[in-house]
Amino acid sequence: MARSKLKAAVALLAVAALCVLVHLRYQREIGPARARIATGSTVVDTPCGAIEYAVDGDGPAVLVVHGAGGGHDQGMDISKAFVPRGFRVIAMSRFGYLRTPLPADASAAAQADAHACLLDALDIPRAAVIGVSAGAPSSMQLALRHPERTAALVLLVPAAYVPRPGSAPPMRTPAGTDFLFETALKSDFVFWAGIRLARPTMIRAILATPPEVVAGASADEQASVAQTLDHILPVSPRRLGLLNDAAVTSSLPRYELERIAVPTLAISAADDLYGTFDGARYSAAHIPRARFIGYPNGGHLLVGHQQEVAAEIAALLQ
């Protein structure tokens, strides 16, 4: 009896020690993540409400409209491909992300008006726009509602309308995404644990990219994928934005694509697990001055094509 009690006590101590070690590692890694989103951005009051944004570079203005799970920091990650090419990148946090509050009307149209309000606040008459994933609906709405403010449009793995058989929704949901949305995307700790213990699952379900594509990529692109996943942390100040994006992208209407009058580039990959390939191709087919670039693989992050994609976008912007 005494020996069994001793074994139980040792086991409890081991579990307690493991919990302490996990907690210490979590605190060591979540601290810099919280510090990262607390610096490098500004909040400006506009007629559309408070908007958080960051700016980098000099040259023609490029407005980066981030995707789900993003914020100004995701936009700044994207800007690294364009600032050295001579562009001034403006990256906002959309409604419900980080320090931009979620208003009562957080529709794609209202977001587009907020993009125009931000350009007004920064005294930028026109900008090229890069709409990434769930940032594509408001980017298209900006080109439709404020055509005089839009110089060019890039739809990068866009959440976009496409007619599907049986009235199926335009966007698809990878296996496990709904479960993670109700668990990991509600908690900084659970999300952190997920990317440490089940990274391939998180790459598939959150980043909508086949893990085997990432495994076969270069070291630089693997590092880029890891950074994208890590930079969703902390996820808690993005939660309201994620919920709103889920609502907006679940019922995407068909916009008047034929009225978009600026040079447009739509890019996706056939194995994007969110199903953006069809929407990108459909949008490009109906926007008068649009070109579609489709890759057979690469997933939602266009793994294996990132440098080529950056070059194609820069060519359009120039």
Describe this structure in words.
The chain has helices at residues 2-37, 72-79, 108-121, 136-145, 177-182, 188-197, 199-205, 211-215, 219-230, 239-249, 276-286, 306-317; strands spanning 42-46, 49-56, 61-65, 88-93, 127-132, 150-156, 264-269, 290-295. 44% of the residues are buried. By secondary structure, the protein is an alpha/beta fold. Helix 3 (108-121) packs across helix 4 and helix 6 (188-197) crosses helix 7. The chain is 45% helix and 15% strand. It has an 8-stranded mixed β-sheet, sandwiched between helices. It has a domain at 42-172 and 237-317: Alpha/Beta hydrolase fold, catalytic domain (Rossmann fold, 3-Layer(aba) Sandwich), CATH 3.40.50.
In short, what is this structure?
Pfam families: Abhydrolase_1. With 318 residues, this protein is of the alpha/beta class. Helices cover 45% and strands 15% of the residues.
How are the elements arranged and paired?
Layout: H1 2-37, E1 42-46, E2 49-56, E3 61-65, H2 72-79, E4 88-93, H3 108-121, E5 127-132, H4 136-145, E6 150-156, H5 177-182, H6 188-197, H7 199-205, H8 211-215, H9 219-230, H10 239-249, E7 264-269, H11 276-286, E8 290-295, H12 306-317
Helix pairs in contact: 3-4, 6-7
Key words describing this protein structure:
318 residues, alpha/beta, Rossmann fold, eight-stranded mixed β-sheet, 45% helix
Shape: globular
Low-confidence stretches: none
CATH class of one domain: Alpha Beta
**Range of helix content:** 40-55%
Q: Provide the CATH topology of one domain.
A: Rossmann fold
Mean pLDDT: 92
Strand order of the largest sheet: 1-2-4-3-5-6-7-8
The secondary-structure element order is: HEEEHEHEHEHHHHHHEHEH
Would you count the extended β strands for me?
8
Helical segment count: 12
Q: What's the assembly state of these chains? A: single chain
Largest beta sheet, briefly? 8 strands, mixed
Task: Please tell me how large the radius of gyration is.
Answer: 21 Å
Distance between the termini: 79 Å
SSE class:
alpha/beta
Keywords: Hydrolase
Protein name: Alpha/beta fold hydrolase
GO molecular function: hydrolase activity
Organism: Lysobacter koreensis
